[in-house]
Amino acid sequence: MLITVDTGGTKTLVAGFLADGTIKTQTKFPTPKNQTEYITALQAAVSQVTGDDTTDAIVLALPGTIRDGVALWCNNLGWKDYDAQAALEAAFPGVPILVENDANLAGLSEARQLDQPVARPLYVTISTGIGAGLVVDGKIDAGMKHSEVGRALVEYNGKAQEWESFASGGAIYRHHGQYARDITDPDIWQDVAYRISRGFLAVIPIIQPDTIIIGGSMGTYFGGYSQQLIDILVDELPPHIPCPPIIAAKHPEEAVIYGCYYYALDELAAK
Question: I want to staple 53 with a disulfide (CB 3.0 to 4.6 A). Which of 1, 14, 31, 35 is the partner?
Answer without folding.
Answer: 1
